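Hi R.,

As promised, here are both runs. First protein below:
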Amino acid sequence: MKSKRATKLFVLDTNVLMHDPSSLFRFEEHDIFVPMMTLEELDNNKKGMSEVARNARQASRLLDEVVSSGGADIQSGIALSEPSRQLASGRLFLQTEAINGVIPASLPTAKADNQIIAVAIHLSEKFAKRPVILVTKDINMRIKARALGLEAQDYFNDKVLEDSDLLYTGARELPADFWESHGKDLQSWKQETRTLYRIQGPLCAELLVNEFVWQEGAQPLHAWVREAGGKSAVLETLTDYGHQKNAVWGITAKNREQNFALNLLMNPEIDFVTLLGQAGTGKTLLTLAASLTQVLEAKRYSEIIITRVTIPVGEDIGFLPGTEEEKMTPWMGALEDNLDVLNRPAEDAQGGVGDWGRAATMDLIRSRIKIKSLNFMRGRTFLNKFLIIDEAQNLTPKQMKTLITRAGPGTKVVCLGNIAQIDTPYLTEGSSGLTYVVDRFKGWLHSGHVTLQRGERSRLADHAGEVL
């Protein structure tokens, strides 16, 4: 192995490969080293149908491909440029010698983590002039490695951003002098019930398509960007879903962000919607109201499909009997709660129809809602459906891609979640699949995003969200 001062040597832990099998090709010009224990752990985790097992098999296949293409000389490293299609220009090294007696006696050598740390220590002594860095998603392993004088870091490649405060919110407040600086050569015209403005000014370069803009004051403006890029932009006024005449399944928008969300949910031109927000901001309620209106009244979609990740907050409740729908029922308590709210306005409007009318409406609603498990999504295609992905913050970017690519012609996909409540191990706010799609889809003509700010559940829930 040649010592190159400019490049680093990254030692990969198993969980990095199991999190993202393509991580082999994500270190650009730097070299990577795969210890024998990492290969052993990949082998131990390859059985089963879980995402982890699938990734372990994929990582093994990629390693096999690289090693097969590299010829017989593994000692001097295998060039990654060809297998990675020029994504990486470094080399891959595999452990070809036994490494013993490097770590302190206090650390048990039988543990896989400690053996990988031992390899990293050995390499840092062997190549003293070269940075040797251990890459792992295991926090305790990073702490141990640093305590032993090693450099260790998390796998950052799939992190969309370091700070969740920088995540695109989907809405921006216009400055007070907006019309003075952007009103020159202003063009305005009507299109059906909406007013459009073509503006020019410095802010136009920053605006994204389908971003919401607002300004309060004497002449309030709530609009969204229909065209952007360059020196001019087109703003279109919104439908006011806060007014009772525009109520969606009896529900009206309680605040500005809810109005933005309903404009996205009710627009047939928007195929993909992401709604972020803490508990009680109305994500599920608004989405269900919009989906029921468009399935049962407008007949725009044939049915509603709801799915979510089945990760318990506490202890798991064990085996559940029944069909796929019945097994998913305990995870869908939020759906039941929201359906109760949505079924109440219909009863009140008809002057107290009573239990019969309410039960009939509920049966009709239930006949159009299908609850599906994520485990059986691969290979499916949804035609003309309204697909709701609840608790989307618990999905990895790869799972998110698998789900969104199920959408066939005429299907709308809505992702709901709160990135402050992630229950999946190894996922953080920066690497969640929800954060990933919000960032990747911003500015696309047929997608939109809103971060809901204000809780509307109750004063107790709002206060608990702030202080706890």
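And here is the second one, sequence first, then its structure tokens:
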Amino acid sequence: MDIGVFRIFDSHFHIIDRRFPLVPNQGYLPPDFTVRDYFKAVRGLKVAGGAVVSGSFHAFDHAYMLDALEGLGPGFVGVVNLRATASDQEILDLHRAGVRAVRFNLYRGGSETLEHLEILARRVRDLVGWHVELYVHSRHLEELYPLLVSLPAVSIDHLGLSREGFPTLLKLVDRGVRVKATGFGRVDMGVREALQAVCEVDPGALMFGTDLPSTRASRPFRKEDVLLVMEALGEELAQRVLWDNAVGFYRPFC
């Protein structure tokens, strides 16, 4: 299969630009990865949109996000760390700039804490139609299950990271939770089998992303990861995972 055939909505990548504030996380600061670097890295892939995601090192800075969205252009949206105290006007302004989701980084921090998840998830959904995204180890999903299935719209990063708790991830998929097919170099499971398992439960749940620049991953993204998706799922399902599912979820053209 030719990886340049299918359009891709890159549902998860980071822009890192030292013109804007960065906050060390556990002593770590990533190297720069600018909009120009991103487009260079995906050259040869048919990326026609995507979601730039705030990392732990961005904390609550939105200036970088607004600049990144302007540089990335049409079809790209943002996922931010948002304070629970953010005003309605701040949320409306971010929405107009292209933000479409709030991230809760339960794995590395830098975002609001779990105690604010339910209220903030409902608030941004009602106000601007956003969803929430969780960077969480799947071993914790069983205890979070009642809360997550009660929320209006949720996605989970990086296939949940681990085979430990993966059955609970599949239970959440059966209840409407989305899953990002991202960070293949972060997980401790068979990626091919995990992709197939999620799609077997709900073919509309899985959303591909590069995870560029793959900060702190044991193996960075490589273009062969797109081929893995195509070979594991076949052309029809791959098209949904690479484009359709995420475009319907993020509404980048609205």
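A quick note on the second one: Strands lie at 7-13, 46-53, 76-80, 99-105, 131-135, 154-156, 178-181, 206-208. Let me know what you think.

Best,
J.
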